[in-house]
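Comment thread on ticket #2218

A.B. wrote:
> Attaching the input chain for the structure job we discussed in standup.
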Amino acid sequence: MNIGHRIGFALICTVLACASMRAQDRVNVYPDNRMLWSDMMLHAEQGLIREGQGWRGTVLWTTRTGELFEGYSTSSFDLKFTVRDGHLIQGDSNFSDAILYTLDGKNLYIGDSTFPLDLVYTLQQDAFDPSSFGLYKEDSISVFDRICVFEGAPSPEVLFGFLLALGLL
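C.D. wrote:
> Ran it. Output below, let me know if you need it in another format.
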């Protein structure tokens, strides 16, 4: 193999490795654990939460570290929520009464609370597929109480964006 072929091969491998790493940040939402491509409800990729499977889906939320913007925007006028220390906060408020939900580990609570009666949802890793997570009602992990399945691990911002897009918050 001459030097030109080696350089070309190395370049192709580098491009494929970069593309593979970029694809790792994609998180898909399905109604059940069959995870059929045609049943995909939402997906998040490169900070955008879209309806459906592809890039043509409507952008519902734009995420940045600690921020959720409505639609396809990062304007301060479209900032609807901030995420700090696991808290979903209305707007960019610094007051505790603006805390809407608290994410504590795998549990999501109403308000600024981790009291068991305030538990709304539980996020549980699938026993057979470590890359997928089920969202369950309250503290249940029964298949009958599962609301949806995430393929990939969502960040707190993406998780809150998904729940808002699904009308669960």
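A.B. wrote:
> Thanks. Noting for the ticket: The first strand starts at residue 27 and ends at 30.
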